[in-house]
Amino acid sequence: MLVLTRKIGEAVTIGDQIRIRVVEVKGNQVRLGIEAPQDMRIYREEIYLQVQEENRHAADWNLTDLENAVSLLGSGDKE
Amino acid sequence: MKVTTTRFGELDIEEGKVIHMPEGMLGFVEKGFILLTPENLGPFCWLQAVDNPDLAFVVADAKNCAPGYTFALTAEESRALELSERSEAIFLLVVTMAPEPRDITVNLRGPIVLNPERLIARQIVIEGEKYTTRHPFFETSEKKQSGRQRPERQPEKNVPPAG
Fold first, then answer.
1. Is B84 exposed, middle or buried (0-12, 13-18, 19+ CB in 10 A)?
2. I need a surface site. Which of A23, A62, B1, B40 has the fewest CB within 10 A?
3. Which pTM value belongs to this model?
């Protein structure tokens, strides 16, 4: 991993379209300003990991649970 | 082609129905899936990996379980999914099943976008606090149902008009 030291206001560029600037440092928090093409999805790592984790939960299911859910929906539909 | 599945036995699937997910589902390596939509499952469909009998996700069309759910695709995503201006993508939400149906949730943060014509799909991560990975499934469905079951005649309306 490339590790660079930056001061407040300084930036790193990745390729020619992405620039990440240190905006503020407060205690153990760093605020970053990110300039990137609008078209690019940027997310905090934990959001990505959350989806990955939720996928793992979602993949672990059994037919009985699904049948129960379907029957609950069915009973709710009765007029 | 024959697809072996742990939950549903062996299925005979047309090769042309395989959905390609070049990036797979986050955290999984499988790239080929089939989407099965049995009528008796109501809003639930299942997304079965064609080369891993164990791997299947329960999914639901966002249209049916999260009204108003929307987000914009980036140009890169539209290109990768080969979506044209005319074609309409389908947003599938991954369902996390639970023994108690009211604990069932849908993942609004990691929808699967499917191009139903080209059968290409990608799971997308949505940043921000607007959507959660564990949105209660029955919350929205029940609102619809209680709305439908509310008695039509309201007592106030039976009061004869004064005068």
1. exposed
2. B40
3. 0.83
